Amino acid sequence: MKLGIIGIGLMGGSFAHDFRSTYKNSKIYGFDVDIENCQYSIDNKIVDELLNETSCKELDFLIVSVPVHIIPNVIKKYLDFVGPNTLVIDLGSTKNSICNFLDTHPKRDQFLAAHPIAGTENSGPKSAVKDLYKNSTIIICESDKTRLELLEKAFKLFKNLKMKIIDMNPLDHDKNIAYVSHLSHISSFMLAKTVIEKKLLRKNIFDLAGSGFESTVRLAKSSPETWSSIFNDNKSNILEALNEYIDNLNNIKSLIEKSKNDLIFDELNKINLIREILLGIKIK
């Protein structure tokens, strides 16, 4: 099996690790715009060789893992290079703009829009880890536009990587992900900003921070390039989610201002339902 990776960071590098663990005799090619990332990936055997136009024609899969605003043009470029039996798969956190851009491409049937629900707050090839994708969910969109034999090959790949497959409409994907992923990152970035701006307390404030603070701001360590690109691409859905979030913040602010202790308790108690929801999802 031969795999190509465009963008050898956390997601691309981890995919290479899991692919190699699953397919023992595989050969992995990679490319990254950062020369140091390329060299690190070769030195540490994340990839075997740098990807070029010739090796593109021999690939079974080409994984595109770059900021979402770059993905459409990268896929358009590499679809011209790959062989007739290569499947190009993107790992972007938004799907609608990518699917729309590639909808009329002559080789559209060699592309699969995908979003693995996996990752950490770290970035770059040094953050790549084994088993990142194991037992994770991968969302695919417009799979009916992918050539059947290539789609079946992708399903086999995902199942061999122990991934759960969900098929979604790209519009539904972007709306739902805005609430459960993109909004979480904005909240984390803004909480970190709020604390950082308390300059008088900066000297000792982090000594006072417990595990709750650390887990809440963990996502604020994520790549600014990656997330500014996502926020812009999924703007309308994120603004809708943000408006609802701000309304809820203003509501709890008002209850605190008015010392409505019973109502605060009732509100928090209702929100505690999230524990049962998440536990049910985890068991499922």
Explain how this protein is built.
The chain is of the alpha/beta class and 284 residues long. The chain folds into 2 domains: 2-168, NAD(P)-binding Rossmann-like Domain (Rossmann fold, 3-Layer(aba) Sandwich), CATH 3.40.50.720; 173-283, 6-phosphogluconate dehydrogenase C-terminal fold (Orthogonal Bundle). It is 53% helix and 13% strand. It has an 8-stranded mixed sheet, with helices on both faces. Helix 4 runs parallel beside helix 5 (96-102) and helix 7 crosses helix 11 (235-257). The relative contact order is 0.10.
In short:
The protein is of the alpha/beta class and 284 residues long.
Question: Can you give keywords for this protein?
Answer:
284 residues, alpha/beta, Rossmann fold, 6-phosphogluconate dehydrogenase C-terminal fold, eight-stranded mixed β-sheet
Give me the Rg, rounded: 21 Å
Name of the top-level CATH class of the largest domain: Alpha Beta
Number of domains: 2
* Alpha-beta content class: alpha/beta
**Helical run tally:** 13
Q: Return the CATH architecture of the largest domain.
A: 3-Layer(aba) Sandwich
Give the termini distance in whole angstroms. Answer: 32 Å
Strand residues, percent: 5-15%
CATH superfamily of the largest domain: NAD(P)-binding Rossmann-like Domain
Question: How would you sum up the major sheet?
Answer: 8 strands, mixed
Number of strands: 8
CATH topology of the largest domain: Rossmann fold
Helix amount, in percent?
40-55%
Mean pLDDT: 93
